[in-house]
Amino acid sequence: MTPTPTGAVTATRVLVLNSGSSSLKYQLLDMDDSSRLAVGLVERIGEETSRVVHTPLAGGGAARRERTGPIADHGAALKAVAEELAQDGLGVDSPELAAIGHRVVHGGLRFTAPTVVTDEVLAEIERLVPVAPLHNPANITGIRTAQAVRPDLPQVAVFDTAFHTTMPEYAARYAIDVETADAHRIRRYGFHGTSHAYVSRRTAELLGRAPEDVNVIVLHLGNGASASAVAGGRCVDTSMGLTPLEGLVMGTRSGDIDPAVTFHLKRVAGMSEDDVDVLLNKKSGLVGLCGDNDMREIRRRIDEGDEQARLAFEIYIHRLKKYIGAYYAVLGRVDAVVFTAGVGENAAPVREAAIAGLEELGLVVDAELNAVRSDEPRIVSPDYARVAVAVVPTDEELEIAQQTFALVTGAPAEG
Ligand code: ADP
Question: Which residues does ATP bind (predicted)?
């Protein structure tokens, strides 16, 4: 909070909401110093065993609170969040709240930047549901719910696809019939854009250079995973496509496959469209290959000599290497390869294996630096390496809050 010369209060808080189909993640930040005042999550919305986990962080932070009990819908979930925040004196009715920032997964071609939500904007997000059937409906519900609670506040949509809208046409288009593609808005949109934007900018900072001067390959390796090639701060290619299914091997998604596999499954294995959808999105990737999608468990199994886990790991690494090579060629000159998200930030063996053998490209990992555990952005390549290998923890909520605050106050987004 910043008191103005007249003693009035300037609103500096931003509530960030990330609504999933049965969950609501939230963070309250103070943009005066980008500090987090509270974080939490409502999960299993619509079930008997819904759970609210709330962690107050302001003023040293009180103990984490948790409660279980039925929460019928997103409206009830946000009410529960508001109650938790009120208990800490951080109520959503506070005049210090400047805006609510929403993660919206699919913004199509129209939304290239954070956008204040209007009825027309909501209608456009709705129009994109066919290309993001799992995500956009939940995001819309989250926005409507927040509007009902604070109709006077700006609601800002921050799109996962926005950062990738700078991709040149030759990277964004699939090589299919143009009329069919355009009629159904089939093209590569890319996702995790908020993370790729934040991490590529932080990497430039870590290198002590301006974002415009550096070329970076970002590897966002969480349960979902994507790579991007960022040239001078602008995305020029990314591995996810029309949907988040394309690209890297993920926790439960296959990533790249021959599309004819889907015809084959239907014609020969007698599977329905939905069966194939579930197979490729939920039962493939690491979980399909070895039964586990948690990299910690996979590494433990490999250490015990489990061959199935080893093969899954090798397939995962092989795909990652192919993308590093591809994006190296796309960029021509690379200043850093950066790892982020759950696997990228924590799994040293993944970083080591993905970079192994790429010395000719100027890429080397220093075993000691790579083994260090830290929450800070850091370089894990030796000084002599031509290209830096870095680990930069992602922070999508901070990026959403900064973009939201910048939009509603007219200030430039901070780096
Ligand atoms: P998402 O946001 O996509 O759900 P995260 O970025 O939180 O995912 O990443 C979750 C994944 O990170 C887990 O499934 C696990 O594979 C991996 N992970 C988390 N911690 C570790 C760790 N200490 N070592 C290895 N992998 C880890």
Answer: 25, 220-224, 294-296, 342-346
